[in-house]
Amino acid sequence: MNLVIDDSKDYGGDIIARNPIAGKTILKNLLNITTLYIDFDLGGSETGADIVQWALQNSCLPRRVQIISTSPSGRKAIENILLNAGYQKEDNYYILIHLF
User: What's the total number of domains in the chain?
Assistant: First the structure.
């Protein structure tokens, strides 16, 4: 199941969260999220990078993540978090290769 966290677009996701609170709730409570599509600018003070960091800390970030932000600095911020957490870039996705 795919989760999109974006304040305006849906990217054809199975589940769409329009704000960080909804996104966190879904990530924490649904164990069958296989891919997260995440935007950086979520329309408020909390960013996609904040969500990714929170999901890592709460052990609920899916093994497959696609950054859908058009902001170069926002994409880089999320990418750095994922790479530091052991994700590897494969095509347009970041995939957790080794489970800890």
Answer: 1
Q: Which amino acid is at 63?
A: R
- Residue 50, domain CATH: 3.40.50.2300
Q: For residue range 71-84, what is the model confidence (pLDDT) as tens digits?
A: 999 999 999 999 99
**pTM for the predicted model, two decimal places:** 0.92
Give the span between the Cα atoms of 75 and 68, in whole angstroms. Answer: 8
Which residues fall within 8 angstroms of residue 24, CB to CB, at 6 or more apart? 51, 54, 55
Q: For residues 73 and 29, what is the distance between their CA atoms, to the nearest angstrom? A: 30
Report which secondary-structure segment, H or E, holds 90.
strand 87-90
The separation between CA 100 and the C-alpha centre of its own chain, rounded to angstroms, equals: 19
